[in-house]
Amino acid sequence: MRILKIFSIAVIALFMAASLGRADEFRGKITKVDTAKKEVVVEGRGSARGVALGFVVNADTRIQLGREPAKFEDLQEGDRVRLLFENRNNERVALAIMDLSLRPRPAPAGNAPGGNASGGNVPGGNPPAGNPPAAPVTGPNTIAGKLIRVGLTEREIVIISPGAPGAKETETTLLVPSDVKITRDQKTLKFEELKTGEQVTIHTEKRDGHLVAATIQSGGQPSAAAAMPPPPSENRRIEKIRQALKIADWFLQQMDEQRAAPK
């Protein structure tokens, strides 16, 4: 059964990668949501900063808020998004919209993440005042290791953590909400100030059904090897494969839930 699932993920990932390869990509911030025309206007970021493009959203457009399926009505001005689109009849038609802003959704009573978040704000108090971060306190909601990637557009980080003696290292990918608390030597940092190669201790929480960073405590200097990113073409190819695998895994989760649902 496990082999069949792995094979299914690989097949779907290859199909998604081929499909995504034919589409154009645009990243930026939503500046307008036109519910009457079913259109969104997105202002570009990075090399496309200052460029505003409109996209048509139809019934076939796949919309995700984080890793959860969403509706057109869930999109809001100010959200950071990644779009895949095609040009049809002189219109840019959105094939997929991934909302990366991680806006907190209204949580059911008793299930609000704030209860855990208050406990997650303690990491700054663990090390003695004025000292560099000591050996991280490990636990089910704590990840300690080295940053190997900081995705500014996606607000995503990748951490490598040492495994148990004789075991391989563990790679963890986390989304970073806009309200996350980031510190280094008890000083507040911006997300853009995180550097690959430095050691971090991250307290996590469940938000909207998936794991995100609640607080990030940074310490240590980037290593020379980690500070050298892979070539741009290689980095982009790996990113596309990673995104395709995430989408394929999400599709399989939906299939499992449908099969498990009572008929």
Describe what is shown at a glance:
The protein is of the alpha+beta class.
Question: What does this 3D model show about the protein?
Answer:
The chain is of the alpha+beta class and 263 residues long. The chain has two domains: 2-101, OB fold (Dihydrolipoamide Acetyltransferase, E2P), CATH 2.40.50.320; 117-124 and 133-227, OB fold (Dihydrolipoamide Acetyltransferase, E2P). It is built from four helices and 14 strands. The chain has a seven-stranded mixed β-sheet. The chain has a seven-stranded mixed β-sheet with strand order 10-9-8-13-14-11-12.
Task: Enumerate the spans where pLDDT stays under 50 for 5 or more consecutive residues.
Answer: 112-137, 222-231
Q: What do we call the CATH homologous superfamily of the largest domain?
A: Copper binding periplasmic protein CusF
Instruction: Give the number of helices.
Output: 4
Principal-axes geometry comes out as globular
Which structural traits does this protein have?
263 residues; alpha+beta; OB fold (Dihydrolipoamide Acetyltransferase, E2P); 2 domains; 7-stranded mixed β-sheet; 4 helices; 23% helix
